[in-house]
């Protein structure tokens, strides 16, 4: 029997997508970090790795609400955009 893939909602665009298509942001020990493994303990939220979703999540404070904390948005945004750019670079290399 096939296992169902977990579905999560992006805090930026509010679209439901498979968990593997999103990046998990987690509040762990009063720190907000990107959870590359998806297994870190702590309160988490999911976001698409694209510029529009990242900007929307930060502008609307939906990420802060989901994590129930405040954090340095500029640092996290820079990390997410860097990761998004790296992912887009890999995707475009495959097409070329």
From TrEMBL:
* Alphabetized SUPFAM superfamilies for the sequence: YlxR-like
Which InterPro entries does the record cross-reference, listed alphabetically? YlxR (IPR037465), YlxR-like_sf (IPR035931), YlxR_dom (IPR007393)
Name the Pfam families for this protein. YlxR (PF04296)
Membrane spanning stretches: none
Task: Pinpoint the YlxR domain residues.
Answer: 8-80
Name assigned to this protein: YlxR domain-containing protein
- In its UniProt entry, the species of origin is given as marine sediment metagenome
